[in-house]
Design brief:
17 strands, Fumarylpyruvate hydrolase, metal ion binding, pyruvate, 228 residues, globular, 8-stranded mixed sheet, Fumarylacetoacetate hydrolase, domain 2, acetylpyruvate hydrolase activity, mainly beta, metal-binding, 4-stranded antiparallel sheet
Amino acid sequence: MTDTVFPPHPTPVIPVQGDAGFPVRRIFCVGRNYVDHAAEMGQVVDRAAPFYFTKSPQAVLLSGQDMPYPTRTQDLHYEMELVVAIGGTAHNISEADAMEVVFGYGCGLDMTRRDLQAAAKLKRRPWDTGKDFDNSAIIGPLTPKQSNADIGHLMIRLEVNGTVRQQADLADMVWSIPEMIADLSTLYVLHPGDLIMTGTPAGVGPVVRGDALRGTIGDFAPVETTIV
């Protein structure tokens, strides 16, 4: 059947430097992947295995676009993250082979309705309303991977209104990129178009209307937005 009762929602497409766009299939987010951030949230990292939550593709907002302040929150937080774009299929892939399915990298903001997330935690409920909402995954243009070289030496940094709020090395991540991909591929079959937002370092905090955010990782294209 080809007819639909209404037009399908368009697939978000992330710009790629020097290439065609990257259509987004799914967004996986890694929780508590920096020890210092876990500590500032009153949590301890479980080193037995990563844990994940998801955002829908419709949460994507392209870098450079304004972010409307979301409804039902009084405590909107930024979380600056490395985004890993998947360009191959992976199921039960080994850590040794995991980098072969990486298409490239980008800068991303995991915007969070912190008050709703905190309320959900207290009631032992899912985080969906705190994490997966319109415009909550702000993604910068992707940079295709040039090799399987380790990028842990790169600095991840976020400025709000020109003031540095977050800064760390990617090497500070608890789980490496191959470890995350290999583990995630035991839970899902990863396909081209999937994105992994790899967690945020310490320094998260609130933003209000009028705040300008700019996040960078090495020479990757920055992620930028203004809260309106």
